[in-house]
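Project standup — Tuesday

K.O.: blocked on the structure for the chain from last sprint. Re-posting the sequence here as requested.
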Amino acid sequence: MSFSVAGQEVVVVGGARSGVAAAELLHERGAYVTLTDSRVDPFQGMERLRDLGIAVELGPHRESLLLDAALVVLSPGVPPNQPVLQAARRKGVPVIGEIELASRWLNGRVVAITGTKGKSTTTTLTARMLEAGGFTVTAGGNLGTPLSTQVAESSADAIHVVEVSSFQLETTDRFHPWISVLVNLSPDHLDRHASFEEYAGAKARMFANQTPDDWAVINADDPQSLALARAGRARRFDFALEAAVPRGVTVEGGAIVERRPSGTTELMPVSAVKLPGRHLLADVLAASAVARLAGVPPAAMRTAVEAFDGLEHALQRVVEVKGVRFVNDSKATNVVSARRAIESLGQGVVPIMGGRYKGGDFSDLHDVVRAHVTAVVAIGEAADRIDTALRDVVPVARAASMREAVRQAFDLAAPGGTVVLAPACSSFDMFTDYAARGRAFVDEARALAAEQSGALADADITAER
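H.V.: unblocked you, prediction finished:
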């Protein structure tokens, strides 16, 4: 079905990266574009939009602007249930998201990857495996590069590997992946979604337009993922570390293998995986499943895996100070993600937790905290919740800044232990996003290392005298 906006009035709501990219794409396609952002301060890219002739309005969204539009496109950070958007829908104005918009102009095939934790690692590694197999590949979406920026380079032989969040999926309509990947599913973003069921329903939209000619790659170890996938029409190709997988990818005898009714194929030894933690090994299995469906040879897959040592902010090893490791897992923005980070790091863990609460029960961490954690440092708006939930299990310290948190955690950790930023919360109370929070942690950990190194040097000089 052809899709054109030429000569039409289109409104983009939200001036974040995806909104700016959508506005530029719409302008290129001949639309008369207005971007409206509720902020009153200028945002990155605003002057470029105005230079292109795109109108920009700051402050409260004008209802008349949206009601008179032929199409409204939302940036993912914009809640779709705002009264002004509901009014536009009642008038019959189509309201879609940036992912939906871009996908209507893509050539080639789409691999869509979602889940509560592990989307970015799976997306990145999938793209690298496909590239190693000789495919033309783009990677983006929620990963950081808006899909709208990739339309111009889209071709019939391209595979677009797209990380999609619940915020992006809830505003889809025709979005049709060739392969959909559900890495896992647990409660998240309950500060925006009214319930877990609503959150899961947004994720399920990834499967809505798939046909029996498409594929769904599902985590067979995760009951919630299996339940969500049952309503889909696509063929199943599962992955699992524990569950039986008659058709898909699993681990057998120290190797990652592909199982099909016709037999088992060894893909690579588990030792080829450089990533820490079983949950990251599961991400490797998910990416391997996509690569095999695309026809990537095992040797090429192994080459990609051996060269991949993880993503920034995802169990990123930062520095070691006097025998204490510092690990940045700022992407652990919910309780389940924090659990996986903590349990992957052995004993003597001191997690820095907190930020803006987005749902979940910190008491669910009691068992993993009891087994792995020495103490907790709580920060941000959720510090009181964390303190109340965990103080009867381990000592909970409080910190007002990342600098203070890093130093308190170091003082509480013993040699051989690990300080990990595993917030279980969003970043928006103290930082612009999870990446800014992660960089702040890394900077403070490295500053601490430099200070301690300097102190040791001073002590050596004094001893020599």
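K.O.: great, moving the ticket to review. The two ends are 82 Å apart (CA to CA). The longest helix spans residues 434-464.
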